[in-house]
Specification:
8-stranded mixed beta sheet, 8 helices
Length: 204
């Protein structure tokens, strides 16, 4: 057994891919429209989705598609599944919207609650029953070496047995999700290395 990338998902340009295969496309749509179209297409059946900010919608879509049909919860305890993500804009998309609401005098607690980037991790964990280690990093670009090495160290220290890693960026209509699942698996699967993640991310 070794540490492997078992699945990966990419959402960008109004297209959704899993393991390199395109699953959905909705051109000429805003992110709001695209996310709602994808929600219906994949039959997510999660009413809370419609109340989330856009970063959380993006993360939930990507994680749902990433984890679909893998029965992770039946093989690994919730406390042993982690989520390690990063982006560039933090929660700025929601922060700007909330600041505008404050200025107009109609600020909403329902919007304010999403003014932290790690809230998207919380939404992913609640949706999937994940209770393990989680961290959200902010960087100017997707720092793959730092993330991969950090996740590998946590595996070596037996902090978790499976981990969702990746990049989750959204600001206005500019967005990109790249999530992958790393876990102990057979050696013929893709190894969880910097080279593997760079190749998967750059080739999509």
């Amino acid at each position: 057994m070794h540490l492997a990338v078992t699945h990966y998902c990419r959402i960008s340009g109004n297209c959704i891919y899993k393991d390199g295969q395109q699953l959905f496309e909705a051109k000429d749509r805003t992110f709001d429209q695209f996310s709602e179209d994808a929600y219906r297409h994949f039959h997510l059946n999660y009413p809370k989705f419609h109340k989330m900010d856009n970063l959380s919608k993006l993360g939930l879509l990507a994680s749902d598609i990433l984890l679909k049909n893998n029965k992770l919860e039946h093989t690994i305890r919730p406390e042993q599944i982690g989520v390690i993500l990063s982006n560039q804009s933090s929660s700025l998309d929601t922060d700007v919207k909330y600041a505008g609401m404050v200025k107009s005098g109609v600020a909403s607690p329902a919007v304010f609650v999403y003014s932290l980037p790690n809230i998207v991790i919380g939404e992913i964990c609640i949706r999937n029953g994940i209770k393990g280690e989680n961290t959200f990093f902010i960087s100017d670009r997707y720092d793959i070496p730092s993330q991969v090495n950090y996740i590998n160290r946590l595996f070596e220290n037996e902090v978790f047995d499976a981990c969702i890693g990746g990049w989750l960026e959204l600001m206005g209509e500019r967005y990109e999700a790249f999530l992958y699942l790393a876990m102990k698996a057979e050696k013929q699967q893709l190894p969880h290395t910097v080279e593997t993640i760079k190749k998967l991310y750059q080739n999509l």
